[in-house]
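Problem: given the chain below (226 residues), write out its structure.
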Amino acid sequence: MHKVAIMQPTYLPWIGYFSLIKNVDTFVFLDSVQFNKRSWQQRNQIKTITGSKWLTVPILSKGKREQLIKDTIINNESNFCKEHIKTIEYNYCKANYFKSESKDLFNILRSHSNYIADLNIEIISYLSERLKIKTNFIRSRDLDCKGSKADLLASICSILNAKEYISPPGSKDYLEVSDAFKDIDTNVNYFEFKHPIYEQLWGEFLPYMSIVDLLFNCGDNAINYI
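Solution.
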């Protein structure tokens, strides 16, 4: 049974994002919808000695209120990558696997694309490969999909001949009032992720951090928590 999941490409995603990828055959980066400022599309959290801290990628938004994710350009004047690398290094340099796991990721940040979607997808693709997740990736911009909300998701699933759509629970409200998936004879199931506890720096365990927190602390064992 061909299982499909569809999510916006987010910056340094949390563990559950990768668990969803791991549990489907095809994962679609929904980059042909409107960009939401101050969303997961441009930021995520890491753990520090004082708690969680946001890492935010600045984007060019003036006069671009309705721009699509795929068209959203990073504001490189802030030199954000240098700041993010410095912050990550300061807070994870004592982690067991920081030295071996940070080099390639930092190289991606240093040589990043001008587009937020390209950066996010490159990071997610690299980390998925590092975690030995073999799911197929597709961008919605490359599909002839139409509609919005449930209709858009069903359109993508129809193009991909999906027999099952695996949805994050947050979409349940609008999916359950729509017949879009019934019309294409595709089953909808909701993905529930139970957050594991693993070894972390800085005291009491803090969930919902970026995947880098797991990778730097657990190395090759990271996949066992996903």
